[in-house]
Design brief:
elongated, Ubiquitin-like (UB roll), seven-stranded mixed β-sheet
């Protein structure tokens, strides 16, 4: 009996030792197959299939988001390791890429602080051609410069040459002759200084640019007297000597009057020296001999 009891006790001890050894080996295998400190992860099956192209499309979008949201914080830790390796310009039509970069005061090889998005956008806005600007500093050394340029819709004479005038009535930059030749000439009693918007000029430009939608040629000249001048807006059309007097009110309705008048009595209008449209429903034509007629 003593020998049998000793044998059973020995068997149980050996089995317990084998189980402890097996658990130790399993734990060692798990440690070897996983990096120290890395949390254990598991795959979760999605309830729908994910197309293969989704990661390809999401990758560049994520890169931009990381550059804007995470890049500034993460790259700041790199100190001198981050440098401008690429400058990407978006939205420019008049200015060239190098001109945009020069306006932003950024160049290849510049460091992290020089590529601060707020500094870049502020520098871009100082350029007369740029109406809106933004910038992004991305991982890998890419700097993105986004601009919206002003569009010259009319031209006014300035000290340095013809100035382009934008939709807000703002003279902003000297134009080349090729840029200015097909734009309406703006003549004002009080010319606003460069960079300053003028609501009266903006409204005059808007009215002039509505002419093609009425089947009329774009005016060759836009004239504005003093604010109290009863003639208000005066336009001239290509190929005609007449001054078309619009006044200061109901300008869109008077454009319609002019379109109807030119359709019905083009020869008389072509011979007139002045066509006064300030009286709704009636246009007053003045010839070169000052004889007046109404239509």
């Amino acid at each position: 009996m003593n020998r049998l009891g000793q044998t059973r006790s020995s068997d149980r001890t050996e089995q317990e030792a084998q189980r402890r050894k097996a658990r130790a080996n399993q734990h060692l295998d798990r440690v070897r197959n996983r990096r120290v400190g890395e949390p254990k992860t598991s795959r979760v099956a999605l309830p729908f299939p994910v197309p293969r192209f989704v990661p390809l499309v999401a990758a560049p979008v994520l890169a931009v988001v990381l550059g804007v949201w995470v890049g500034d914080d993460a790259l700041a830790q790199l100190g001198g390791a981050w440098h401008v390796s690429k400058i990407e310009v978006q939205g420019a039509t008049h200015l060239t890429g190098p001109e945009i970069a020069q306006a932003a005061r950024i160049a290849l090889g510049d460091g992290y602080n020089a590529a601060d998005p707020r500094r870049l956008a502020g520098s871009l806005r100082q350029n007369a051609w740029i109406a809106e600007a933004g910038a992004a500093r991305l991982p890998g050394g890419t700097v993105v410069l986004r601009v919206r340029e002003r569009e010259p819709l009319a031209v006014i004479e300035g000290r340095g040459g013809p100035l382009g005038v934008d939709a807000e009535g703002r003279p902003f930059a000297v134009l080349d002759p090729s840029q200015a030749q097909n734009l309406p000439r703006l003549r004002c009693e009080n010319t606003p200084p460069p960079g300053e918007a003028d609501p009266r000029i903006a409204e005059a430009i808007r009215v002039a640019r509505s002419f093609p939608s009425r089947g009329l040629a774009l005016p060759r000249e836009i004239a504005l007297g003093k604010e109290q001048d009863p003639e208000g807006l005066v336009l001239r059309l290509p190929g005609m000597e007449a001054r078309f007097v619009f006044g200061a009110k109901d300008l869109d309705a008077r454009v319609g009057m002019l379109a109807e008048l030119l359709a019905k009595r083009p020869a008389e209008v072509a011979e007139a020296a002045s066509v006064d449209l300030r009286f709704l429903g009636q246009a007053v034509l003045s010839g070169k001999n000052d004889a007046k007629g109404s239509a």
